[in-house]
Amino acid sequence: MLEILFGHLPGPVRRALDATGLVHLPAALPGRVEVVTGFGANPGELAMKLYVPAATPAPGGPLLVLLHGCGQDAVGLAEAAGWTALAERVGAPLLLPEQSAGNNHGRCFNWFEPGDIVRDRGEVASIRQMTGFVFDRFGCDRRRAFVAGLSAGGAMAAAVLAAYPEVFAAGAVVAGLPVGSANGVRAAMARLAEAGADLDGPGWAKRARAVAPPGYGGSWPRMSIWQGGSDRVVDPANAANLAAQWVALHGLDGTPTQELSPRPGLRRRVWRDAVELWTVEGMAHGFPVAHASAEPFVLDVGIDAAAGIARFWGLG
Q: What pLDDT is stored for residue 307 in this prediction?
């Protein structure tokens, strides 16, 4: 597990940056990826990549943000997990923040460092600045911004939602952890191995509010959670803690209002359309897809999670 936080995981290097700031893409991708600088002070020292659909997004459309897992290529994950296809389908720019080895040797977002998850500090502040840049450039509907992430990116997506609840309408966390689940490296390792049951829903909600605007009394983003039942990297019980956190933030009772099993081994629990938790039995650590993929931690389990998340977000 130390390698998950600090080891540079292997992966194919398939794209090269040229002097124009564009990334060369496979012919299958109709749009383009831009590397953007000058979007803000960037206190978290993250790189900004932006997937622009073939048809330039019209003003008033949604904005999508995807945060990669440890050692992953942001564009590679977006392509393999179905996010570039979703961006094309809904006509939305797809923001792809990317971590560097200088910030974290394993190129993991620092979801366990308080200085990177509190509003207007570190990595969450950089992601917010990138989001503002995309809002302004494309005239996106500021009521329809969405952020998702896988693994360390999922934990950071939850932190972004908590730090900027007024900016995002909804989010999705795949194989991630609750906001405030760790304070430093040792605690992060402990939470990865064993989620623990030391807090109830209100206790977890208090951790999320600690990174939000002081005294925030507005609405909270809706949350879609996906977890593999055979995950050996992130204890699956973290997903239950994350659900409890967001159910409490929405002021709801801990009992699901709906429980479904669309197929054997697949379970969906819903809390008044504000929070949903999908459990995929037998799935290891990764993002569920319904097609073959060679991308690390993108798993063909016959489920198109990106499409499911989009439906929950109201994107069809």
A: 97
